[in-house]
Amino acid sequence: MAEQNFSNHGRFFPPFHFFVVPVMTINFFWSIYRWKVSGFSLDGFESVVVAAALVLGFLSARIMALTVQDRLIRLEEQLRYERVLPEELRWRSDELSVNQFVSLRFASDAELPALMRKVLDEKTGGRRRVQFAVNEASSETVSPSGFVMVIC
Q1: What distance in Å separates the CA atoms of residue 85 and residue 70, rounded to the nearest whole number?
Q2: CA distance 138 to 85
Q3: Is the pTM of this model over 0.85?
Q4: Model confidence pLDDT, tens digit, residues 89-133
Q5: Where do the structural domains in the chain lie, given as residue ranges?
Q6: Contacts of 93 (CB under 8 A, 6+ apart)
């Protein structure tokens, strides 16, 4: 399996994104159209309700799967923090939100303490903001002379 990083972590799952979502969306709007054409009958209303339930059911299943994925990432990161972080930051890891935990997973072991301190001290919120901070830190390396070099 290829290593996951900031540029490749989001991806489409073709059966879901390119088949299920379009079919459910078309079915929902088709049900609304058929309900309108039938003169807003009770039978047409029932079709709209069933179509809406299917859309909500599939979207809810997707959200639940992503929530479990986030919880698993948080558990993996907590184990990593025990190994990598100094004592002071280990205790502060409880202050991180789930989004911050998920975003910090792309930080290398060497840059994690500084990035975590920055996220906690500056109250950086939102996945994208933390991921961009990790991405920026990952593109910098320290030369033997102590100067920071930006890798383009």
Answers
A1: 21
A2: 17
A3: no
A4: 888 888 888 888 888 888 889 999 988 888 888 877 666 677 667
A5: 12-84, 86-152
A6: 78, 81, 85, 116
Question: Which residues 6+ apart lie within 8 Å of 108 measured at CB?
Answer: 138
H helices of the chain, in order, are 14-15, 21-37, 42-84, 87-92, 98-104, 112-122, 127-138
Tokens 């339930």 correspond to: 53
Which pLDDT tens digit goes with each residue over 34-92? 999 999 999 999 999 999 999 999 999 999 999 999 899 899 999 999 999 999 888 88
CA distances from 6 to 39, 61, 69, 151 (A): 51, 25, 16, 16
Nearest to 111 by CA among 148, 57, 73, 59: 148
